[in-house]
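Journal club prep — side note

Before the paper discussion, L.F. wants everyone to see what a predicted structure for a comparable chain looks like in token form. Sequence:
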Amino acid sequence: MSDSFAELANRHCKPPGIAYQYGTAGFRMKADKLDPVMFTVGIVAALRSKKLDGRIIGVMVTASHNPEEDNGVKLVDPRGEMLEQSWEAYATTLANASSPEDLSTRIEQMVSALHIDVSKPAKVIYARDTRPSGPELVASLVDGLNATPGGSVSYTDEGVLTTPILHYLVRSKNTQGTAEEYGVPTPEGYYEKLSAAFIKLIKPVGGIQGELIVDCANGVGFIATENFAKHLNGYINLVPVNTSIDKLGVLNKGCGADFVKTQQKIPPSMASHLKPNQRACSLDGDADRLMYYYLDHDGVFRMLDGDKIAALVAGFLGELVQTAGIPKQSMEVGVVQTAYANGASTNYLSQRVPVQCVPTGVKHLHHAAEHYSIGVYFEANGHGTILFSSNALKTLKIYEPNTATQRTAVNTLLALTDLINQTVGDALSDMLLVEVVLAHKGYKGAEWDSLYTDLPNRLVKVSVKDRNAFKTVDAERRLVEPQGLQARLDDLMKMYSGGRAFVRPSGTEDVVRVYAEAAHKAEADELAFKVAGMVYDQAGGDPMTRPSEFL
């Protein structure tokens, strides 16, 4: 262990009694506990780049939809995708080193096991959202980059960005000058690419009528919304709300995509902006989730979540492929969902396209979507995107249409490949996509909503001492541990018309999530709170602090 390494590592020692784990969204917790994690993540990022012969690795500092006092960090692989799963364990191992000496030993073991040539150069880019804890955490990350064995680490601070823009930059920088070049590798290149595609798609239908109210969750999505407005040439009028990015304590508070999904109501700050028959959307704190909603003619709030987005865009894509005259077997449109998908959406989609259910987490959805020519994945929480396989892109570029109508359909599909950020779920890209589809279909919120009727559902969080005591199978739809609990759930579900419920541990915090749906809202609520009560009691919850709503 060199003196310089020891000096840097001693600034970022792990406090006793804390166990860190790289989860579905990287590391995420209260910001004041993250310093040692940031240091080791810097080392992991640089070693990952060295292992991949100097390809650029991304690091995003964000806690997405979490409260402002939280923060997090995740790594982005060269094609803009999530960190390769086998490396998550190494990130966890380094983060939990008990001392600089222990960390040095763990790094040596990692380098040996993965056959990393530390003399190779490394390149890392990083960005953060608007959280006040970001700058200090970035400084810890830089210390880790500088402490990496072998040195030769170059890094670039991309500043304050949405998470999807960082993913775009990583892929664009790594593919620049190749046959797979993804775009100009700058934030401006991102805005120009998506805006040009949007204008190309919307011009034939004359633009978007009226205003689109955009709830920016008081986060970095406001900056992106403002930048898009400058590039879209008036083809859509974006009206940003909740734009206080410099005010403390307001990020994601009472607003944003997660508020809309979990509370199933309009953010109070949006109420004065929205009129009957008008639609709006909410982003989350790092602009990778999107929730739509509208007020019907009676002024009643109607939510259009990730399931509704998947149904809208999958149907549109399928129609375009058919209109283009491309055989279905040459370009199959498929949808990937998680257990959180509303049962009504699964039934609707299954009658039209292949549907696959996978465990929660972007990495699972993304990988499954790659198996389709056009893979659509959206979680109910509003995170998702669409992937076009290399074969699909090749087919579209060389396909010879027989009619003008077919040519228009092919050109529309090609423009969509530029509008959609295929690296990760991107709230702004998805928003523009939804507006394009609605304009082409002539839909307002009510017509979109009428594709199917959601089964009433309820999501409940149960705080537990150890979330790892809950283990699932069948894409997280069934419990195998604690033993006997699933059988009790099965008996309970039989008591409700259309009853379905499942229990899964969170990937980011010590809570267990309960989802329930049934034919009627009162039944869905009752089922959810009965299951929550079972989980709380099973986990050894204190009867004195048992939430009153748990049955």
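L.F.'s comment for the group: The first strand starts at residue 27 and ends at 30. Keep this in mind when we get to the figures.
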